[in-house]
Amino acid sequence: MSNSLNNHGWIELAAMTLSGMVRNQWVQAANLSAQTAWRQRFDNRDVYASVCRFEKPSRQSEFVCPFYLDVDCETDLSKAARQVIAAADLMADHIGILPECLDISFSGAKGFHVVVPLQTFDYPDVPGKQVLAIWRSLAVRLAKEAAPNIDLIVYQPSRVLRMANSINSKSGLYKIPLEYKELRDLGLEHVLEVARQMRTEETMAMPEECPKAIAWLHGAIRWLQSRSPRGSNRSDGHASFKHGWRVPPCIRALEETVLPDGLRHAAYLALARFYAWIGMHIEEAMARIEQVDHRHPIRDFDYIARITRYGHEHPRFPGCENPALKRHCDMQCFRLQHDTSQVGPTVEKGVPGLDGGSHENELRT
Question: Both 140 and 217 in a single domain?
């Protein structure tokens, strides 16, 4: 077993309240009494814990992360259940993960969570972000071949899932652990019935190493490393400024300040598009924006992932008239070498979730 698991013991706790999300509460994963106290503080309702385990009590520290799936279907829970079964069968056939090793849970409302315990893959001594990228690639494959309702925007260090045996206020039901055979053979009525109360088992999964899964993961790591040679994460890009600026003062100021409410969405969009414009790797761009967000966390968990991908697809330096950048503009610092009239509006109209307004959405899990 890798030393990674022994060195990463911190988890983040969170809770959804009427006034928004409460988070940044750090405890040791082994400290069950602290977790119980957190549940009691919120009447065991809408309480969450991070999927990742961190080296230090900070989302900017190194982390380990199990493979996990979030399968939701707003209008047809039975469809989500069928997709979970199909994904489990596909993982067994192609990766060698036994269905009995899967930690499957009914979320208490519209879907299911599936977690593959860390021990299954004999967790490797590689950066957590590298493993997280592999998990997302695996989820994409499963979504294409077995479960199209898999949520693909959940693969980020800040992700939290509902705590087992906690109440989902949307339905009044509990998030409960399920056996694979139970979900497959007993049907949805059984699931909804047993979710009316807590289950004594914290998890029914039986963690054990799966040799085929271990071989698959190490092969995926080698493949990923072959595509990302040393130094490739930061490209010189095509951006060019007078006076030799690589990162202008206004961008640097956004990276170093505590952003107020009403400005964070526009600021994160500006950063995402600028990072893509200078050729920064999308994973590094997301990490940088998460580091800025850590000082004053935004309540929309998925926004950073969405905005980073959008910026990656629409690279551009927003220009000095951007409201987030204008606050820190020094007109003597530089001029773009190309025609600044080509610098368009900061926000593209018609793009959901990118309008710079309030995004205090509930978790999608």
Answer: yes
Per-residue model confidence as pLDDT tens digits over 23-40: 889 999 999 999 999 999
pLDDT of residue 233: 40
Assessment of whether the complete model's pTM goes beyond 0.85: no
Cα(178)–Cα(191) distance, rounded to whole angstroms?
8
Give yes or no: residues 177 and 247 share one domain.
no
Q: Is residue 219 part of a domain?
A: yes
Tokens 């989500």 sit on residue:
80
From residue 267, how far is each of 66, 250, 323 by CA, in Å?
A: 31, 11, 8
Tell me which DSSP letter residue 123 carries.
Answer: -
The SS3 call for residue 100 is helix
* Residue range of the domain that includes 108: 3-225
For the chain, how many structural domains are there in total?
A: 2
Residues 275 and 220 in one domain: no
Determine the pLDDT at residue 87.
96
Q: CA 14 to CA 129: how far, in whole Å?
A: 22
The set of residues, in sequence order, having a beta carbon less than 8 Å from that of 246 and lying 6+ positions away, is 278
